[in-house]
């Protein structure tokens, strides 16, 4: 088991509430692109899209993954996401409980660097 906390990423992605966010989360974990995904309660998002201000109900996903798995996760999220331009933002995990971080890294499929 590895304990390098710098390998971890927290990926944020909002999924439209009517687009089965739980199903998307299930697939990403089953495919070992993520160790764990938290589905937060739906939120109302307000944003500018194609010169219009839009409001949508979305479910925020907090996705725990690794730097190595990120490119495959991003590609898969884009394929599953109904938006033309989905919000996919990755934040490095700088610190954490070493045993949790090791579990997270071990739970995600290894990808060649």
UniProtKB/TrEMBL annotation:
Belongs to the CutA family. This is Divalent-cation tolerance protein CutA. One of its GO terms (biological process) is response to metal ion. Pfam families: CutA1 (PF03091). InterPro entries: Ion_tolerance_CutA, N-reg_PII-like_a/b, N-reg_PII/ATP_PRibTrfase_C. GO terms for molecular function: copper ion binding. It comes from the Bacteria.
């Amino acid at each position: 088991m590895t304990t390098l906390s710098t390998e971890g990423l927290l990926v944020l992605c909002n999924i439209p509430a009517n687009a089965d966010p739980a199903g998307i989360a299930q697939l990403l974990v089953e495919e070992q692109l993520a160790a764990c995904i938290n589905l937060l309660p739906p939120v109302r998002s307000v944003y500018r899209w194609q010169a219009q201000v839009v409001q949508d109900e979305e479910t925020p996903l907090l996705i725990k993954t690794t730097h190595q798995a990120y490119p495959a996760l991003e590609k898969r999220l884009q394929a599953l996401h109904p938006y033309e331009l989905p919000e996919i933002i990755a934040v490095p995990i700088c610190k954490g409980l070493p045993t949790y971080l090791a579990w997270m890294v071990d739970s995600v499929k290894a990808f060649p660097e």
